Amino acid sequence: MDGDASGAGGRVRLQTRRESLIQDRFPDRVAAAEQLAVGLALEGELLVGRRMT
């Protein structure tokens, strides 16, 4: 997943490798990214799992 702080339609955009937008699934990540500098682009991976009880 890539993060791009200059996305259309909002300040933060999260997208998959296939360019599907998924920021609505990770509002906590979007909120954190909104604290970063305008125009900053991040590239990386996010691993998502289920909490085992």
Strand and helix layout:
Blueprint: E1 2-4, E2 13-15, H1 27-33, E3 41-43
Antiparallel strand pairs: 1-2, 1-3
Q: Briefly note the structural class of the backbone.
A: alpha+beta
Binned, the helix content reads 10-25%
Strand runs, count: 3
**Terminal-residue CA separation:** 27 Å
Main beta sheet strand tally, sense and closure: 3 strands, antiparallel
**Low-confidence parts:** 4-8
H/E order of the elements? EEHE
Radius of gyration from the CA trace? 11 Å
How do the strands line up in the largest sheet? 2-1-3
Oligomeric state of the chains present here: single chain
**Looking at the structure, what is the overall shape?**
globular
Mean pLDDT: 80
Describe this structure in words.
The structure is a single chain. This protein has 53 residues and is of the alpha+beta class. Helix content is 13%, strand content 17%. The protein has one helix and three strands. The chain has one helix at 27-33, and strands spanning 2-4, 13-15, 41-43. Strands 2-1-3 form a three-stranded antiparallel beta sheet, with no helix packed on it. A hairpin with an 8-residue loop joins strand 1 (2-4) and strand 2. The longest helix has 7 residues, at 27-33. The chain is globular, with a radius of gyration of 11 Å.
